[in-house]
Fold this protein.
Amino acid sequence: MNAPDARLLLVDDSAPMRLVIRDVLADLGITQVDEAADGIAGMERFRQAPYDLVITDWHMPRSTGLELLRRIRSAEYHRDTPVMMLTADQNAARQLQALDEGANSFITKPWVMPMLVTEVLRLISARPDLHAHAPAP
């Protein structure tokens, strides 16, 4: 999959952080980015459309990124969608927990742009084109 064709879901309770990440994605040509401010709203978005990548914060109100990850992995559809945890939490045990529960990548804030770009491109490049033949949720 080419980066400009990718569709991403960005879940973070910080609007300024979502804007920064959206700008990084736009520099890659990725403009199909849906946003949510917590894991509950993120899962509602996830149910509406297939995504090539979900980027989520860990600590959010109402529902954490880990809870979102668990819901995605137990969903009846698109459960294999790559999930990147992007968080300020540098707790190694939490990183291992997220990876054990199915996160494909875990980056701690403050992150450096080349690392984020590399991981986004790595995770979406292996995805088939889901949009042409996506089943309705």
Summary: The two ends are 22 Å apart (CA to CA). DSSP finds five helices and five strands in the chain. The beta strands are 7-11, 32-36, 53-56, 83-87, 105-108. Residues 55 and 125 are 15 Å apart (CA to CA).
